[in-house]
Design goal:
Layout: H1 3-17, H2 25-36, E1 41-44, H3 51-62, E2 66-70, H4 77-81, E3 82-87, E4 92-97, E5 104-108, H5 115-118, H6 120-127, E6 129-132, E7 135-138, E8 144-149, H7 162-165, E9 170-172, H8 179-188, H9 204-214, H10 221-236, E10 240-242, H11 246-262, H12 270-281, E11 286-287, H13 289-293, H14 298-308, H15 314-319
Parallel strand pairs: 1-8, 1-9, 2-5, 5-8
Antiparallel strand pairs: 3-4, 6-7, 10-11
Length: 320
């Protein structure tokens, strides 16, 4: 699969998803960037903005298996990973896989589960495997966790620890649709939901091939230094208590490579880094208390960092 074919395949998938998700081209594109990088997505938004539909439509467009886990305070880790049950006929334990054994998993309202249950996702997200009663089981490939949480309602929730936030590749916010897009939604769902007729436009095997392809996208030394400088600047920003880790640098690098491939290029530009900085880094920052008092968001900090870090010889970086 060459660069032009990869770009065309991505356009087909995005266009297919946009039959259901209206007016969110950039967000759908970023979701597919995460898929290309084998990363996981955290969507922070109010109910009813299409978070569940986005996960379902991606799964249908790629022909991937899909499971939804509704996170509640009484959810147990075994409800996520699965459980070993004793079979009297064979006199042995039989593993009954949980919903995590799917290619695309929607963790709905993830912050409503207890920390013990949230931690059941850590091994799955980082190592693409789960361990039950000392036995390790590999997860299917491709594998994506798309988690949602409501940024407004905090009563009865358990905030995600920094270690788990750091394992999410991107953080997205869909937001409310525009007036024209909302009218399109009303028209599209007048008879039936459009997701019921959504077809497959790309296979899971093609996605796996594309995931390998994006790792070959060229990254010039100047662009590497720019990425490292941006991430380092988050650690020294006066309003940041804890900046992005080296995992953030890796995420920004891989996301920039995938974004360049989506654009039909075989090299990364500094503009790719700027476009992906907020989605990949903002949820990895812990702000100072005074920043929260000033109602300063992490995306604002990222914007200030991008404005302060110079780009060294961007044209040369593109030619290298």
């Amino acid at each position: 699969m060459d660069g032009s074919e990869l770009s065309r395949r991505v356009e087909d998938v995005v266009a297919n998803v946009e039959k259901v998700i209206f007016g969110k081209h950039h967000e759908v594109e970023l979701a597919f960037v995460a898929l290309l990088c084998r990363g996981h997505i955290l969507i922070e938004d109010v109910p009813g903005t299409g978070k569940t539909v986005l996960a379902k439509s991606l799964a249908r467009s790629l022909g991937c298996s899909f499971r939804r886990i509704q996170f509640t305070p009484d959810l147990l880790p075994s409800d996520v990973t699965g459980v070993a049950i004793f079979d009297q006929r064979t006199n042995s334990f039989e593993f009954r896989p949980g919903p995590i054994m799917s290619q695309i998993v929607l963790a709905d309202e993830i912050n409503r589960a207890t920390p013990k249950t949230q931690s059941a996702l850590l091994e799955a997200m980082e190592e693409h495997q789960v361990t039950v009663d000392g036995v390790t089981y590999r997860l299917p490939d491709p594998f994506l966790v798309m988690a949602t949480q409501n940024p407004i309602e905090y009563e009865g929730t358990f905030p995600l620890p920094e270690a788990q936030l750091d394992r999410f590749f991107l953080r997205l916010q869909l937001g409310y649709p525009g007036e024209d897009q909302e009218i399109e939604i009303l028209d599209a769902q007048r008879v039936q939901h459009p997701i019921d007729t959504l077809g497959q436009v790309m296979s899971a095997d093609d996605l796996i091939e594309a995931q390998v392809r994006v790792r070959d996208i060229h990254l010039a030394p100047a662009v590497k230094r720019y990425i490292v400088s941006v991430v380092a600047a988050t650690r020294s920003h006066p309003d940041v208590y804890l900046g992005a880790s080296p995992r953030g640098s890796l995420a920004l690098t891989r996301a920039s490579q995938a974004y360049a491939a989506v654009r039909g290029r075989d090299f990364v530009l500094p503009d790719d880094v700027k476009a992906l900085a907020a989605p990949t880094l903002s949820h990895r920052l812990i702000l100072q208390p005074q920043a929260r008092l000033k109602d300063l968001g992490s995306t604002t900090v990222i914007a200030e960092v991008l404005a302060s870090v110079p780009v060294e010889t961007a044209p040369a970086a593109a030619r290298a």
